[in-house]
Amino acid sequence: MENFTVDGNFTRKMNKTFISAFQIGVVLLAFNMFLSITASLSNALILVALHRETFLHPPTKRLFRCLAVTDLCVGVISQPLFAVFLLLSVTTGINFKFIFCIHKLFNASSFVLCPVSVFTSSAISVDRLQALLSGLRYRYVVTLSRVRTVIICFWLIGISCGSIFVWSANIAFTVAFALTTFSVTASVFSYAKIFRKLRQHQLQVHAVPRGQNNGRVTLNTVRYKKSVSSAIWVQLAQVTCYTPFLVVITLMTYGRTFAGRMEIAFVITATLTYLNSSLNPILYCWRMGAVRQAAKDTIKQLNCCKSA
Q1: How many contiguous H segments (helices) and E segments (strands) does the chain have?
Q2: 8-307 topology per CATH
Q3: For the segment 161-215, what is each residue's pLDDT rounded down to a tens digit?
């Protein structure tokens, strides 16, 4: 979802590199087109499944829906523009101004969507921590209206980053990098505190005689652990897909490394970031049984409508 910062001279050099590496460009072009389709269809299905699913707490569901919306926008907007940019870059005789315009568009859209996605993943981790700390007060602390306000703030930050990119690409990358670092740090802190609290709770449960153990509390704990595990998988997938790109673009932005291999590494790692939008729906269906069942029911209903 996140993309790179370049000036006109670098884009010209990168265009020459793509033409000389035609086969790599064609493979990446085809792969990005495929990912664009899968991200669009799968996240649309997840949004329908989340709408039908009643197991999740509504504010938590709203956060997952926000994440699915950003991934859907990647599949519908950012990745198709990136694929067009790759197509134009490996095609000779294309006006450079048109290529640079497409470059601006897919970068700006990526800088809007990236902060929203990263902040939402971090908000899910904070939500899971708040559920553990608040206990019975959780439903009164984390309300739908408050989560809606937070999500609006996320989108305003994303739009601001996209606007900054139009003005200064380097400043936009610096801001996006700082926001990503802050969000990941907040997530690590939240999950570390969750594990510490769960460890303390487990020791307290073991200290209570079996006859006095409350089965309902144990069941709620198991369900909570599953929700935390699902959120961690989503966060790990995001970090895994984004980290290689952040390393490459940091070297290219601040190290001024413009070698051909580095430019190819940029395109590969940028594609990896887009892959995250197609992986998330798989993780939802794998780790969240209610979402998986709702998705199956939706597919069955669509098949029935086609057969009818």
Answers
A1: 11, 0
A2: Rhopdopsin 7-helix transmembrane proteins (1.20.1070)
A3: 888 888 887 888 888 888 889 999 999 999 999 999 888 877 766 665 555 554 4
